[in-house]
Write a structure and sequence with these properties.
The complex is a heterodimer of chains A (56) and B (408). Chain A is mostly helical. Chain A contains two helices and no strands. The chains are: A mainly alpha (56), B mainly alpha (408).
Chain lengths: 56, 408
């Protein structure tokens, strides 16, 4: 799922490059990182990760 | 607590009356005296030293500020961050944009606000802090290598922005950084012409003093922060988050705040970097810069402010010195052998391996050991107290109430 998401996002950014030109050329290379930050911002343990347990 | 928190503390904590009171008093006088002497030497240096060393010194001062900031984050509170280069870039770019003059240089149309450089510097620091603040929710919730990877993303995004936002950053070729000035006094070659004791004070000399002042302020701030209540809280947080939260430390809050402080440090370091190089370019703010900063603090000793200073001087000055004396050093030089930068990098690698193997506390640990021998401590190591003397500053309760006995 993660791979799929990143792959599709990257391919779409490359495909719609002309519309996204205001974000700069080669934007598709950065998309995976933006997606990652966006995901982590709202779901710190990843999309499907469970909250980590800590033992003392 | 771990040893690294002690490396910068001795002499500052005297709790109660201990049997060695006179010796301790002498030591506590000795330390500020040494600091003062070092400061006087540093202040007088521009009168005697040639320009190359002053420029190297300013670069080192910038690196010191950045390394102290990264050390607060990685060394003290244990959050691995690779995003330092990004925050440096934010600081540098905002300085250049805010105080740079608008104008076109060849193909690119550059914008600029043309405000006084001091405002540019402040805005640079604040914007870097803001970037850190925006990222800090992430930083507060991730841990260890996860945070490293997430912060890696910032570096790549930063490079992309630097390359593509031409109006502000100058794009691929970068743009020149405006000279610094303070209340009409420019830190450049003229305007006003200045002679001190017959020595012309030009750009290098003036920048030296600027760098010295900024680095010293950053140093004092970090040391005082570490000795204060938040500093203790951060150290507990590194040692055990669970323990910290049990003691009433707001884990998420402190993690976010130290990220903010660290990125502000990085912003200032970025401004100084721009001033020292004289221009900014995207490729100088890559992952390599982050790694170099990590190398500085690992070499210097994680968690120690003095160590960060030593490591920063070592890592930032070495390539420049190699470049200058390439002819004198074997295996380095033009034509045959290695390029100066590469040779310096090999040396860092070797130094890091050696440090990890033999002295995990870094350069600060070595310095500590030397001064420890000088003091003739029983056992030689500061962490080992004889059972009858009250152990200073090794209390395992870092987020303690003020009555803990720190006299600072």
């Amino acid at each position: 799922m993660g791979g799929l998401l990143i792959g599709i996002a990257e391919a779409m950014a490359a495909g719609y490059q002309d519309q996204l030109l205001f974000l700069g050329r080669g934007f598709s290379a950065v998309v995976p990182f933006i997606v990652m930050i966006a995901v982590l911002m709202f779901r710190p343990s990843g999309l499907f990760g469970t909250k980590e347990l800590t033992r003392v | 607590m771990s040893e690294s928190t002690l490396t910068d503390a001795p002499g500052a904590h005297r709790s109660g009356v201990s049997p060695q009171a006179p010796a301790e008093r002498r030591r506590s006088f000795l330390r500020p005296l040494l600091l003062l002497a070092a400061l006087v030497v540093l202040l007088a240096l521009p009168l005697y030293v040639e320009e190359f060393w002053l420029r190297t010194g300013f670069a080192a001062f910038g690196a010191i500020v950045g390394a102290i900031g990264l050390n607060l984050l990685v060394g003290t509170s244990g959050q691995l961050s690779l995003a330092h280069a990004f925050f440096l870039a934010v600081g540098a770019v905002s300085y250049v944009y805010v105080s740079g003059e608008p104008g076109g240089l060849g193909v690119a149309e550059l914008g600029g606000l043309g405000l006084p450089p001091i405002i540019g510097m402040i805005v640079g620091v604040l914007l870097a802090g803001l970037a850190g603040l925006i990222f800090s929710p992430l930083a507060a919730r991730l841990r260890g290598i996860y945070l490293g990877v997430a912060s890696l993303a910032l570096v790549f995004i930063g490079i992309h922005v630097l390359n593509s936002w031409t109006e502000v950053t100058g794009g691929f070729n970068g743009r020149a950084a405006p000279d610094f000035s303070l209340f009409g006094f420019t830190f450049a070659n003229r305007d006003p012409e200045l002679y001190v004791l017959g020595v012309p004070f030009r750009e290098a000399e003036r920048l030296w003093y600027l760098g010295l002042a900024l680095a010293f302020a950053a140093y004092l701030f970090a040391r005082n922060l570490l000795r204060s209540r938040p500093g203790r809280a951060l150290q507990t947080l590194r040692d055990s988050e669970v323990a910290a939260s049990v003691m009433g430390v707001n884990v998420q809050g402190y993690k976010a705040r130290i990220f903010l402080v660290s990125s502000m440090y990085a912003g200032l370091a970025g401004v100084m970097y721009a001033l020292s190089i004289g221009s900014i370019a995207p490729e100088s703010f890559g992952l390599e810069l982050s790694i170099l900063y990590l190398a500085m603090i690992v070499l210097g000793g994680l968690g120690s402010v003095n160590g960060a200073v030593l490591g920063a001087i070592f890592v930032s000055a070495l390539p420049l010195v190699f470049q200058r004396y390439a002819d004198l050093i074997p295996f380095v030089g033009r034509g045959e052998g290695l390029a100066a930068g590469e040779a310096a990098r090999f040396l860092f690698g070797a130094a890091i391996v050696l440090v990890i193997l033999f002295e995990p506390a870094g350069l600060a640990g070595i310095a500590n050991r030397i001064t420890g021998r000088f003091r003739r401590r029983p056992g030689g190591r500061i962490t080992q107290h004889p059972p009858d003397t009250p152990s200073r500053s090794t209390e395992p309760t870092p987020s303690d109430p003020p009555a803990q006995g720190s006299t600072t």
